[in-house]
Amino acid sequence: MSSVSYFKNANNFVANNPTFTNTTYVSGGDALQFLYEHSATGAMHDSEERFPPPMCHPGTREAVVVRITDWYGYQVGPGKPIMWVHAPAGYGKTAIAGTISKMLEEAVGLDFSPIGATFFFWRTSPERNSPTRFIITIAYQLAISIPELAPHVENAVKRNPMILRKALEVQLVKLIVEPFKAVGNLEDIPKRLVIIDGLDECINSEQESRVEKKYAEDQEKVQVRVLELIHTLQSHCLPLSFLILSRPEAWIKQHIESRSFKGVVEIVDLYEVGDHMGDLEKYVRAELSRIAANIGDEGWPGENTAQDLVRRSNGHMLYASTVIRHIDDPYDDPRERLKHILHPSSSPNLHLAHSTPFSSLYELYRQIMRACPASNRSLMIEVLEDIVVARPCFCPGSGFQRALATLDSLFGRPPGSGIRAVRGLHAVLCREDATAGDGLMLDPFMHSTFSEFLLDRQFSLEFVIDMQKGTRRLLRKCLEYMSTITMKTKVEEKKEPPVCSSTLSAHLG
């Protein structure tokens, strides 16, 4: 659009308190283009921004893919219109979403496109980390996917182009609900699948200052708002099904399990579907074989080495894929690189050996922690420090929440402070009352790399924890507590304390 001069060649006049009205007109042929230009095109499954998109390795995640496609049901549609697939960081949720998108897009024998719309949130992308363009992007894709819907979406844009500046809830009604109602009989329209990946990556960055900060502190509200938008859409009985994939953040889990969602959502814990350890082993072995063929050493790496990498990955596809990317370097020997990862002591530079292969993993950890409110971070770091220092002192079977309650009491924090402080760390902590099982200590970390990350300032930066300081704090508090015990102190024999006294004394030395 060219610039306009309202008073070209005018002179010797004064305009007092002028008012200018800029009206936007959109013609029929330009309506969808206008919508496209305001969409978050990078959030679509086949966008250039996401190319090449993460996909499941051939032969893996088959159980969860079947579970999702069976639920969707194509023409029939699912019994429950929403499915929530959740798992911690590194379990391949985005790859599953990409695989489902590609599979449905390439489905044969159908006279319609099963994919209605996709939106892949991404925390560090300005147009993909905010809900601002969410409804616009979904509406545009639905208009392309469903021919019957397109003219009614176009009419909505033509009638009021400024709808793109309205609240998301208004956009939802005007750009999706009302156009569907205008179609008439919706029973003849096959169900389309709308895929929303990475809901936990959605932060409120509508203001420029928030975009610069990247990590907003009101992310809980904005993620719940997106859930409410989805719930509103399904309540209108439209020919749409919704697949949501995210980490099991406390506020997301709580909202999806609330009364309003009950009966309309199917919840799938990715960790419990299929053989994720078997899938990871297939991936590791296939990739190691490929690299071995490239270097002409088909006897490498050997059974023991392959099993060692599988064990260290512990089901985390992110960890395994990071290792594979690191060792698959044309300018270095993958055999030496893998050796340095599996046996760090053999590396001449321990930090260098770890910093390169796990930089993406550590950056992910930093993003997770930076997403927590700044006002809560000092307490969060203190609680994490307490966990790392004191975890050898807790007996197996103590339970994470009970352990934190004990630490709250010991350090004089208000009850529940510890569990609230780590509320936003579901991706890296087993916050449920998981125990150490047959192990020697309570270990709530999803993966050992997280505790290693916390202890090394080079990687954790502002989130580093100080073991020496934490140990001194724990020792001082234990001594203060012990000094209050006298012969007259009553001890409830029925309540076994979660702390092993022998382990505590050995740990504090």
TrEMBL record:
Residues 79-227 form the Nephrocystin 3-like N-terminal domain. Keywords: Repeat. It holds the Pfam family NPHP3_N. The keyword Nucleotidyltransferase does not apply. The keyword ATP-binding does not apply. It comes from the Eukaryota. SUPFAM superfamilies: P-loop containing nucleoside triphosphate hydrolases (SSF52540). InterPro entries: NPHP3-like_N, P-loop_NTPase. This is Nephrocystin 3-like N-terminal domain-containing protein. It comes from Candolleomyces eurysporus.
